[in-house]
Amino acid sequence: LTLPPAFGSAYVGETFSCTLCANNEVLPGSTTSKIISNVRIEAEMKIPSSGNPVLLNLSPEGAEKEKEGGKENGVDLELGKSLQKVVNFDLKEEGSHVLAVTVTYSETTPMNGRVRTFRKLYQFVCKSCMVVRTKTGVLPTVVRTKTGVLPTSSGEKERKWALEAQLENCGEETITLDTVVLETTEGFRSQGINWEIVGEGEEMERPVLMPGDVQQ
Questions:
Q1: Which end of the chain, N or C, is more open, meaning fewer C-beta atoms within 10 Å of its C-beta?
Q2: Which H or E element spans position 133?
């Protein structure tokens, strides 16, 4: 089973993807009498927030699944051939992740046959690409009347807050901010006053953040 020993940087919000290859390394022309059959690859991901690993669905499906147990039928590998599966996993939290891959196969010779299993672990750290720091301030309360806006205690009040956010690029690559949206709960409404507000005929210039840059 082969997989790169280092994956580079992995960030929250990305999809971790890789190809797993189980190789029959006996080359054509070899004098060996071994036959490799019923090869299966299984994978699971250990995440920081759970003590139980998450079983991963591998694609392509390949052989049809067995009726009992939900496991795929194994694949027979000729000399020099390989079985490939693709792993996709959405990264949702920071911390250490462990990809555990198990390969099971049957090894048959003219004299006997046996089932072999081996397991490999691949560890990587997921971190946040962006850190958000916020600060909320109460805006002065105003009173709306028929004659205008008065700073009195009568009439209909609208209490308002101003929310500031600092967005820091904590990753190792340059990123571009497309939009930043505040999702409000019921009873509140918000209006953004950021760079996405452009006049007629103007183009929106999306902020570019180098590693360590901060956008207010």
A1: C
A2: strand 130-138
